[in-house]
Write a structure and sequence with these properties.
Helices cover 19% and strands 31% of the residues. By secondary structure, it is an alpha+beta fold. The longest helix has 18 residues, at 122-139.
């Protein structure tokens, strides 16, 4: 049996010491047809292990309803890793961070305004326990103790960055053990006093997350857990991007040198990320430092493999280091995918959002504006509508705690944006005959890290014109998870939110990238699949479109543009542009 254990301050696999060289690959950030390719490239680089999170919100999208098909078929991902001879480390929730929407927590938890996340609060734990029982039952047969590839599982994730509830951590550990998990359990945290005090437990292996200064990090770990194996569970060899920032990169030589030093000093390393992938749909998360910062669609992460699975200088440098360190002959490199430029596409048909409302949604009537979670909505957009009687003097429209970005319309005419990070305002008067007020709010991703994790969406407190609260609203949930009911017409121009449709021909499906010059902000759908958001503020200027999303022959492209485009053209190109 190849069980992982700690012995004399070292990691042992079965009867031999082992140095884990692992890479993070998230099955939920690529289409299933690509899983084998990315795992083969991990193996060809010399890695002996794959690590991944499991996002709760992907597998229990509706309370009590579980999903394990398609992109959520985690069993198949584990089986593929096993077939390639890779060991597996699993980090199975409830919280994962990962720059993923709400840190992997399901949004329906927020229907309970009093719930205390990531704590011993019973209103939280009752859902955690129910979910863990299901997901651990899926994972249990693949443990090394049952002849499978899973050698270790994580308890929570970087809990020391959030709280100090040791009873919560112990409860999760007990739930895992009670549900048949008998592989090595561990925690992972940053190398600081507070993080290690809050996130580690006696009797459970402690690992560290960092991007540099490994000697200092493990010196700090030794203070709390003497004679513990040196394991970097997240080696940050790249970084992620927020909208409006420059694209983050890390010099491949710097990343390789730090990695080489860790190998030479006996550290087991997990590359975060080895392959980043894509935040398809509305699954990107957000951070909140001094202000709200939503993450872009690409999760390229400047990793050794690009978003399209191509090799980088970082990949080749790391591969050479591993080959020299292990003295093992590495497999031949798998081929990169073919990239194709499918050229220009004109979106000749369109329909405005306001005309499309009857095909997309039904109004919910409420005395007060409700957040998404209170109307059983997870992601997308939500529209608040009210007819204001006149006359009313000119006053500022106040959206109390808008989450996250609101477009304001009077009689369908655009007035401006109110969002949670800029100090922009909209003010107006109301004529005697009155006016129709529409407020379209976009959920740009729930916060995935830090003390502001509890992040309901929509308008969460109230709407005022001046000092006066406005009551009695028609609320239109717009998850935009199915656009098949839309009725398009030809050759219309729109100066507000609208859907656009076009078709393009594919002789053979290949990876491609969609460029949207002249478009401002919105969402793209290829053959009904939401490939993610775009925004002119960058840094990302193209969206990755994997070949498996395309069909030989005619393909359909739909775009939901929030503002207006300078034209109706987009371009499929063969090179990405992440800024």
């Amino acid at each position: 049996m190849r069980n992982l254990k700690v012995q004399d301050g070292e990691l042992w696999l079965g009867e031999k010491p082992i140095q884990l060289i692992s890479g993070a690959i998230h099955y939920f950030r690529m289409v299933p047809e690509q899983w084998k390719d990315r795992l083969e490239k991990l193996k060809a680089c010399g890695f002996n292990c794959v690590e991944f999170y499991i996002p709760w919100n992907l597998h229990e999208p509706v309370s009590g309803e579980y999903h394990f098909e398609g992109i959520a078929n985690v069993e198949r991902f584990i089986q593929l890793a096993d077939e390639l001879g890779l060991l597996v480390i699993v980090r199975p929730s409830p919280y994962i961070c990962a720059e993923w929407e709400f840190g992997g927590l399901p949004s329906w938890l927020l229907k309970d305004e009093n719930i205390r996340l990531r704590s011993s609060d019973q209103s939280f734990l009752k859902y955690v326990d129910r979910y863990l029982k299901v997901i651990l039952n899926v994972l249990k047969p693949y443990q090394s103790t049952n002849g499978g590839p899973i050698i270790a599982m994580q308890i929570e994730n970087e809990y020391g960055s959030y709280g100090t509830d040791q009873e919560y951590l112990k409860h999760l550990r007990d739930v895992m053990i009670d549900n048949g998990i008998d592989v090595l359990l561990f925690t992972s945290d940053g190398p600081t006093d507070a993080m290690l005090q809050g996130g580690t437990m006696d009797g459970t292996l402690a690992t560290l997350n960092f991007g540099s200064k490994s000697d200092e990090a493990f010196k700090k770990l030794e203070e709390f857990h003497p004679n513990s194996p040196k394991i970097c569970m997240e080696y940050w060899n790249g970084w992620f991007d927020h909208w409006g920032e420059e694209h983050h990169t890390r010099d491949h030589k710097d990343a390789a040198d730090t990695f080489k030093h860790m190998l030479e000093t006996g550290v087991s390393v997990n590359f975060y990320m080895f392959y980043g992938g894509t935040n398809f749909g509305f699954y990107n998360g957000a951070n909140f430092g001094e202000f709200y910062q939503p993450t872009i669609t690409s999760y390229d992460y400047d990793a050794p493999l690009t978003e399209a699975g191509d090799y980088t200088e970082k990949y080749h440098a790391i591969r050479e280091i591993i080959a020299n360190h292990t003295k093992i002959e590495l497999p031949t490199l798998p081929k990169e995918s073919t990239k194709k430029s499918y050229g220009e596409v004109e979106l000749k048909q369109s329909v405005s959002l306001f005309n499309a409302l009857p095909d997309l949604t039904r109004a919910i009537h409420s005395p007060d504006p409700l957040p998404m979670e209170k109307v059983d909505q997870d992601y997308g957009f939500i529209l608040y509508r009210k007819f204001l009687k006149g006359p009313r003097e000119k006053m500022v429209l106040q959206l109390q705690e808008v989450r996250d970005r609101a477009l304001i319309f009077l009689n369908n005419d655009y007035q401006g944006v109110i969002d949670r990070w800029e100090d922009s305002t909209v003010e107006f008067s109301v004529p005697k005959e009155g006016v129709l007020l529409d407020i379209l709010v976009e959920n740009m991703g729930r916060i995935n890290y830090g003390p502001k994790l509890k992040d309901p969406k929509g308008i969460t407190e109230g709407i005022r014109h001046g000092r006066q609260f406005l009551h009695h609203w028609d609320i239109y949930p717009l998850p935009l998870d199915n656009l098949t009911a839309l009725s398009f017409t030809k050759d219309q121009s729109h100066h507000g939110p609208a859907f656009y449709k076009g078709e393009f021909q594919v002789d053979e499906p290949h990876d491609t990238f969609l460029a949207l010059p002249g478009w401002k902000k919105g969402v793209v759908y290829i053959n009904g699949f939401n490939v993610g958001r775009y925004w002119e503020k960058g840094p990302q200027e193209t969206l990755y479109v994997p070949a498996p999303l395309l069909e030989k022959g005619t393909n359909e492209l739909k775009i939901f543009e929030l503002h207006e485009s300078k034209g109706k053209l987009v371009h499929f190109v063969d090179q990405p542009n992440l800024g």
